[in-house]
Design goal:
The complex is a heterodimer. By secondary structure, chain A is α+β, with helices and mostly antiparallel strands. Chain A is built from 12 helices and 13 strands. Chain A has 2 domains: 34 residues, no CATH class; 368 residues, Cytochrome-c3 Hydrogenase, chain B (Orthogonal Bundle). In chain A, the strands form 5 sheets. A 3-stranded antiparallel sheet of chain A has the order 1-2-3, with helices on one face. In chain A, strand 2 and strand 3 form a beta hairpin. In chain A, helix 3 packs antiparallel against helix 4, helix 4 packs antiparallel against helix 11 and helix 10 runs antiparallel to helix 11. Chain A is globular. Chain B is 39% helix and 12% strand. The chains are: A alpha+beta, B alpha/beta. The interface between A and B is large, with 54 and 51 residues. The complex binds iron/sulfur cluster (SF4) (3 copies).
Chain lengths: 415, 232
């Protein structure tokens, strides 16, 4: 009888290339397949044999949006491997970079990729010029902030093992702080838009994972999932990757179960305060939430929260010319940090200064299984709607996850 | 003028860079019609007058996509190192896998070099096309820009810098920030890898270190370099 096939060949307004296939037979949902057809990129493969010094620079090229996160995760993993002691001021400057890159990534996702769905536009450049100018003003500020610390907004060029390749001055932090202060009112205004939108209700996922600790950190912490808490170095006991035949990106599980990472997971496990907390209360928003589409709300709140944190760090920063010294060139190390889209893992084995083994697990790879299961769960409930509507709903959900496909196909263990 | 921004296999950093034109993009939107940009648009149309392509084709579908873009655009611009010579992922050439820049598949009208490309150069190119002027890539090395910015040469600090053979146009952003140039903009036309290798050897770098540095973004020259090192 009635057979329907809904096929989205190349999902737009997400980072990278993915496709979705939904098969419905006799009003029954037969299949939901989220495929990644973007070419594999073999990063881990060509990292092997390279000097550890080049790893942060190479890692950045995995993704043009989360470039800062990849550089910092790579640097920290190599530092762990070689027992490099990193000065506190380096960590402060890295935190500043991470924050401005999170803000820029969230802005890109919220304003350019997600928002059009909710305001009935094809793309954000169609919005009125005044709104666009505001978005661009904060986006520009976030980019300038990354550039002040990193030398360049896309692929910062001064992140090296042990610290930075140049001195980061007190005046750099002042410029950085001034930018964020000026951008704050608009940032709040933009964030509040996303606190009031009407989101699809998708409450299947109950398993989240994020960094966790005394302080809400993007840089370092324990890994918390809904059932376990563990250290970054122990990840192999908990996290497992599986390849599947219809996708170029692996699927990732925590002890056999799918899970969700990203801003929503972070706010489910960490407390925020300050202006972001106030905004949350003003709008009657509560965390934890298990509506996957609340990722948008969580990102909006994070922008405000971390902007305030960034001002504090910039205030305290007194310049940094020190660097952690590399004294030994052998070892194994793991680092897990929070990229804009969630937990990002880099793992290296280094022998005589050269990488012998590399493993990278990206947030989107972690989220793909959850995304596909959420899609199945949600589409099942709206089977009676027409194809176009199902498509729209599916896309909203996929975009809420803010997938970064380029990241997820960096995979390498070529057999 | 209708423009399109297209993405093959890559990190999409060049697309992000394109969006980073910031306030200038608003002016751009007035004069140009962005008809195709999958990263930010749902309805994407062809043909276009100018196609900006980032990334390299990593499978047959992408090769087809690239020919389709070529057939449906008047001007095709190669955007970034990946489009130009497969960039960092192009390193797998040495592991028996082929990764080639887009010029190996289709005719390219203009190149924006770099990983990512430089925004100033993009604006210059757009303005040249708009006003019917000729656009030329810079044809000196990055050292010349270091000199203009008064950067102390990193080779003297025993840091292996590729600026001597890399094409200028980025304002020596890496050496300016204390980091070696990795030659992400590829070689400039007057490139002389023998004298460069000789210089690096005289500064105390090993053959292996020099080959490693070339392998990153300068894949095309590795064979020649190895041959020379062997025969010298
Ligand atoms: S050239 Fe560099 S920035 Fe551009 S897509 Fe390739 S890796 Fe990304
Ligand atoms: S630092 Fe590099 S680019 Fe600058 S002058 Fe020295 S070799 Fe040339
Ligand atoms: S200095 Fe070298 S590596 Fe840096 S942007 Fe310029 S050409 Fe690329």
């Amino acid at each position: 009888m009635a057979e329907r096939e809904i096929n989205i060949e190349d999902i737009t307004k997400i980072e990278g290339h993915a496709n979705l296939l939904i098969k419905i037979e006799n009003d029954e949902l037969k299949e939901v397949r989220l495929g990644v057809h973007e070419g594999k990129r073999f990063f881990e493969k060509f990292m092997v044999g390279r000097s550890y010094k080049k790893i942060p620079e190479m890692a950045g090229r995995i993704c043009g949006i989360c470039t800062v996160a990849h550089e910092i995760a790579a640097a920290r993993a190599v530092e762990n491997a070689l027992s490099v002691k990193v000065p506190e001021c380096v960590e402060m400057a890295r935190n500043m970079m991470l924050i401005s890159s999170h803000i820029q990534s969230h802005l890109l996702h919220l304003c350019f990729l997600a928002l059009p769905d909710y305001v009935g536009k094809d793309n954000s450049l169609e919005m009125d010029v005044e709104t666009l100018k505001k978005i661009y003003k904060v986006k520009e500020a976030a980019n300038r902030m990354t550039e002040i610390i990193g030398g360049r907004a896309v692929h910062p060029c001064d992140v090296v093992v042990g610290g930075f390749s140049r001195e980061i001055g007190r005046e750099d932090a002042e410029r950085y702080g001034k930018l964020i202060k000026e951008a704050m009112p608009i940032l709040e205004e933009i964030a509040s838009v996303f606190l009031t939108l009407d989101y699809p209700d998708i409450r299947r996922q109950n398993n989240f994972a994020s960094l966790y600790g005394d302080e809400f950190s993007l840089y370092r912490g324990m890994i918390k999932t809904s059932k376990y808490v563990f250290e970054e170095g122990e990840y192999e006991k908990y996290i497992e990757e599986r390849s599947i035949d219809y996708s170029n990106a692996n699927r990732v599980f925590v002890r056999g179960e799918d899970f969700m990472v990203g801003a929503l997971a972070r706010l489910n496990f960490n407390e925020i305060d300050g202006r972001a907390k106030e905004m949350m209360n003003e709008h009657g928003i509560k965390f934890p939430s298990n509506n996957s589409c609340h990722m948008n709300i969580a990102q909006a709140l994070e922008m405000v929260y971390f902007a305030e944190k960034a001002m504090e760090i910039a205030d305290e920063f007194n310049g940094c010319s020190e660097r952690g010294e590399v004294k030994n060139e052998n070892g194994e190390g793991v680092a897990i940090i929070e990229a804009p889209r969630g937990l990002l893992l880099h793992h290296y084995v280094i022998e005589k200064g050269k990488v012998r083994y590399a493993n990278i697990i990206t947030p989107t790879a972690m989220n793909l299984e959850s995304m596909e299961r959420d899609l199945r769960w949600h589409v099942e409930k709206i089977l009676n709607r027409d194809d176009e509507e199902i498509k729209k709903e599916a896309e909203k959900l996929i975009r809420a996850y803010d997938p970064c496909i380029s990241c997820s196909v960096h995979v390498a263990r070529v057999v | 003028m209708k423009i399109g921004v297209f993405s093959l296999t890559c990190c999409e950093g060049c697309s992000v860079q394109f969006l980073n034109i910031e306030s200038d993009i608003l002016k751009l939107v007035e004069k140009f019609d962005i008809k195709n940009f999958r990263l930010i648009k749902e309805r994407n149309e062809m043909p276009v007058d100018i196609a900006f392509v980032e990334g390299f084709p990593s499978n047959d579908e992408e090769v087809e996509k690239l020919s389709y873009i070529r057939e449906n655009s008047k001007i095709l611009v190669s955007m970034g190192a990946c489009a130009s010579n497969a960039g960092i992922p192009g390193m797998v050439n040495y592991a028996g896998k082929k990764a080639k820049g887009i010029k190996e598949y289709v005719d390219v009208d203009y190149f924006l070099y770099g990983c990512p490309f430089s925004i100033d150069e993009l604006m210059e190119l757009i303005s040249c096309i708009f006003h019917g002027k000729e656009f030329r890539n810079k044809n000196q090395n990055v050292c010349s820009e270091c000199y203009l910015r008064g950067v102390d040469c990193l080779l003297d600090k025993h840091i292996l810098c590729m600026g001597g053979v890399a094409r200028a146009g980025c304002n020596a952003v890496c050496p300016y920030n204390g980091h070696e140039c990795s030659a992400c903009r590829g070689g400039y036309e007057g490139i002389d890898i023998k004298s460069h290798a000789r210089l690096l050897l005289s500064k105390g770098f090993s053959e292996e270190e020099i080959i490693d540095a070339y392998e990153m973004y300068m894949h095309e020259y590795v064979e020649e370099l190895k041959k020379w090192l062997k025969e010298r």
